[in-house]
Design a protein that fits this description.
single chain; alpha+beta; 44% helix
Length: 257
């Protein structure tokens, strides 16, 4: 992985368990249960913890306490959430500078931080880093900005009828916000968003496209079943995977077409 800049994370380095997901709730992406999922989750947590510890040991990440660390203790969230959000913000800041000035150094910085964010997302979800990097690089810049904007909000709580960065999102609130940062306005309702999007199948869907089933909309990350979404009450904006039960029945769509 590329070198990370120093940022604040939980001082104890603890991972957070993923609570079981109730059924029949709006904006609820279901997770398969059982010993296989549990074993995979445990191994993934151990792997992520080892990666973070290695980066700390070489000075790639500075571990500190403070209010930023405490904020991530309020609700369970992705282990790498603080790194993902910081890297994604750096990518968008660099892209904004490039658009404003045409500075090629700023564009190179954008590519660097976009790649870094993709690596972190792949590590969090257990996908190949190069696959995630390529998926993000091979989608449009509008889609790239939408993905990165969603990534800046990982760890923000789910809140019904809310679309406010750093405060809360429901499922369509997150996708609406993310695409607004790329200059695309979406209807603020999950079924309307997929209905108004250009229909796609899994083979043609790319990073940044919408993924929807009745009552819930997510953003595809371009690899396997990887998504980012605002899950449900008591959860947060999370890097996640489409559940096995939904994997073959979700709808994909491009909201920019």
């Amino acid at each position: 992985m590329t070198e990370l800049t120093a940022i604040s994370v939980r001082a104890d380095g603890a991972t957070m368990s993923d609570p079981s997901t109730p059924t029949g709730r709006a904006c609820n992406a279901e997770r398969p249960a059982g010993p296989v999922r549990s074993t995979v989750a445990t191994l993934t947590s151990l792997l992520v913890a080892a990666v973070v510890a290695a980066m700390v040991s070489v000075g790639g990440i500075a571990v500190t306490g403070g209010s930023d660390a405490a904020a991530f203790e309020r609700l369970p969230t992705n282990t790498l959430a603080p790194y993902v959000t910081t890297s994604a913000r750096s990518a968008l800041d660099s892209h904004d500078k490039y658009l404003a000035t045409g500075d090629h150094a700023a564009y190179r910085s954008f590519i660097h931080h976009r790649t870094q964010t993709a690596e972190l997302a792949a590590t969090e979800l257990g996908y190949g880093e190069l696959d995630m990097i390529d998926a993000w690089a091979n989608t449009t810049e509008v889609h790239q900005r939408a993905v990165l904007a969603a990534m800046t909000q990982v760890g923000v709580p789910y809140r019904t009828n809310t679309s406010k960065p750093g405060v809360g999102f429901d499922c369509s609130g997150l996708t609406t916000y993310a695409f607004s940062q790329a200059g695309v306005q979406l209807t603020r309702q999950s079924s309307a968003q997929i209905r108004e999007a250009q229909p796609l199948d899994r083979a043609t869907a790319k990073a940044g496209d919408l993924v929807q089933y009745p009552g819930h909309v997510m953003m595809y990350l371009g690899v396997g079943d990887a998504v980012v979404h605002s899950v449900m009450s008591g959860r947060t904006v999370e890097l996640d995977t489409i559940s096995e039960r939904r994997s073959n029945s979700v709808r994909f769509g491009d909201p920019t077409s």
